[in-house]
Write a structure and sequence with these properties.
By secondary structure, the protein is an alpha+beta fold. The protein has 16 helices and 20 strands. The chain is globular, with a radius of gyration of 25 Å. The N terminus is likely disordered.
């Protein structure tokens, strides 16, 4: 709390009127006063008009006739995936820290209570929640969700919670911060339930010990993805189709940095909570132990086979179909059994973090092999020249186990009822919504590895002494969470997470843009086809949809209206102006950073 108190102690109170000076003319408000007023008005509008019971989706038309999260949403829904409800919750808490305005705190409190309402009984969160009830949510899954061709995670109602896309992690962070703000007892049990969920979902025993599945508790899994009109799948070298390893939600998951996000949340709890904040079955020592187990799991799961030394999106948690636990596994039908270059890069960066947290140099043992493997699988000049979607990337997304050949995803048909995805070695005509190439910074990885290996024992000891794993008494978390990503380094003792610099002109521009309407209008990045029923199952043999974000007019997947399929039924349209949580968070963050900046030590 010292850092927060110190920063706010230099925060002058808002001056609402000037006095003295011998003139009756009012003194114009300062930019800082205008910024504070704009923050209050924007928050009041979002809370009172845009939100539904304190919950948020992603995008809204100004008249609220249509609303969207990752897909079109009912007005009664809130989205948990960033930049949904938890992301707005972080922004509201940040605005409260900058302003000390209790009206803003009331909005943050309302959003945190919406998250409590959306919390699964097991303690985590699904991607979405419907305040109208579970039957309304199921109806959404059966209609809009089921017809989103490229969004397989929304085509089926699971009824459980997910670690995907950091939704549960960020929601848990918001409950933690809200509880710490005033230690309102209302939030203590939900916070402890969120912690308990992370602990309960963690695999125990065997090679998977310490890892996490994508969804928990296991329920209503999907083990295969149909391939209608299979005669359209070409007999090309290396071709395969479907979910190669069944229900991927039960495998150890590294996709979207599940392990990193869960470890970070647990470390936030270690740093900020004392024994009185934790319920009897949760101890500080247990949280630290679980972090160590998670770090060891990621290290243990590195796949070695000849030159190959990386990670997949998922790895088998148990032996399955003649394959051993720990081996890379397939996931959605456009995520083949393979090593993933971007996941390998992320996991190497996590190993760097684990060394910094612990001082254990064995976390760096597998890094040279991972870098050497990444060097062995660049995209060729021919691949980049012949596929504009990967022209600026350095590496293929997926690499086949054993052969070390790049794998590329394709799709045929026009919707989920007449088409499907398949994988082969052909780098042409890949989907736009799931990049076939990645930007891998091999030089950066090697540089960091060299720097860490060169640290002396004394330097390592000093670093580890400040590690959040070694926190002995509760201390303040970073003041702001919406201005940039809070990372492991920000949780070390003595760390100061400086805010970005926002000058007076930039702050005034944000205030001017808000105007008297009290909300910011921005071009919405995507639109969707309204649900009109299932699409045709008749074969479609054209090519209009293979490299676009959306299929025919029955497909409810989001797409850029300026770049639709050229099939005769779409015409490019300008992006609609609307209210976006991304725009709100960005603009509010600029005002926060201007009004009450945190300076580097």
């Amino acid at each position: 709390m010292k850092r927060r108190t110190f920063v706010m102690s230099g925060f002058a109170p808002v001056v609402l009127a000037a006095c003295g000076g011998g003139s009756d003319d009012p003194v114009p408000p300062t930019t800082r006063e205008n910024a504070l007023d704009a923050m209050k008005r924007a928050v009041a509008y979002m809370n009172g008009t845009v939100s539904y019971e304190g919950g948020y989706v992603w995008d809204y038309l100004p008249d609220f006739s249509r609303t969207w999260g990752e897909m079109e949403a009912k007005r009664t829904m809130c989205w948990i995936q960033p930049p949904g409800t938890p992301s707005v919750g972080h922004a509201l808490l940040d605005a409260y820290h900058a302003s000390a305005d209790e009206g803003i705190y009331a909005a943050a409190d309302r959003t945190a209570r919406a998250l409590v309402k959306a919390q699964h009984p097991a303690g985590g969160w699904n991607y979405i929640f419907d305040f109208a009830g579970e039957e309304s949510l199921k109806q959404w899954y059966e209609t809009i969700g089921a017809n989103g061709w490229r969004l397989e995670e929304f085509q089926h109602y699971y009824g459980n919670a997910t670690f995907d896309d950091a939704g549960t992690a960020v929601a848990s962070q918001v409950l933690l911060r809200t509880y710490l703000e005033k230690r309102d007892p209302f939030f203590k049990a939900p916070l402890n339930n969120a912690i308990r969920f992370v602990l309960a979902a963690q695999f125990s025993g065997g090679v998977a010990d310490g890892g996490w599945p994508q969804r928990f508790p296991a329920a209503n899994g999907v083990s295969e993805m149909p391939a209608p009109n299979p005669q359209q799948i070409p007999a090309t070298p290396g071709v395969r189709q479907g979910m190669e390893d069944g229900d991927y939600t039960r495998h150890v998951t590294f996709n979207d940095d599940v392990a990193g996000e869960n470890i970070k949340f647990l470390l936030m709890c270690v740093v900020s909570l004392g024994p009185a904040d934790l319920e009897a079955d949760i101890t500080h020592a247990e949280l630290v132990s679980r972090v160590h187990r998670a770090m060891q799991c990621l290290k243990r799961m590195q796949y070695f086979n000849g030159i190959q030394a990386g990670w997949g999106l998922q790895h088998l948690a148990v032996d399955q179909a003649g394959r051993r636990a720990g081996e890379p596994a397939g996931a959605r039908s456009y995520e083949p059994r393979s090593l993933a270059t971007h996941t390998t890069q992320t996991n190497v960066q996590q190993l760097f973090n684990y060394f910094r947290l612990t001082g254990d140099r064995t976390y760096l043992d597998g890094v040279p092999a991972a870098i050497a493997w990444l060097e062995s699988v660049p995209l060729t000049a021919q691949m980049k020249a012949e596929n504009p979607l990967i022209a600026t990337r350095s590496h293929p997304t997926f690499v086949e186990l054993g052969t070390n050949l790049p794998l590329f995803v394709h799709r045929y048909g026009s919707n989920i009822h007449n088409g499907a995805y398949y994988v082969d070695y052909d780098w042409h005509d890949t989907p736009s919504h799931y990049s076939a190439g990645r930007a891998i910074d091999i030089a950066g990885l090697r540089k960091t590895y060299t720097e860490l290996m060169a640290m002396t024992d004394a330097q390592v000891a000093a670093m580890v002494a400040a590690s959040p794993l070694n926190a002995t008494a509760p201390r303040a978390l970073p003041r702001y969470y919406s201005l940039r990503e809070v990372d492991f380094a920000d949780l070390y003792a003595g760390a100061v997470m400086a805010s970005p610099t926002v000058d007076e002109a930039a702050a005034q521009a944000v205030v001017t843009d808000l105007g008297t309407k009290n909300y910011w209008l921005v071009p919405l990045s995507a639109t969707t086809n309204p649900y009109t029923g299932p699409g045709t199952a008749a074969p479609y043999t054209g090519t209009a949809y293979r490299s676009k974000h959306v299929g025919d007019r029955s497909d409810t997947s989001p797409y850029d209206p300026m770049d639709p399929p050229l099939d005769g039924s779409y015409t490019p349209q300008p992006k609609a102006l609307g209210i976006s949580t991304t725009g709100f968070i960005s603009n509010l963050g600029k005002l926060v950073a201007y009004v009450a900046p945190v300076k580097a030590a």
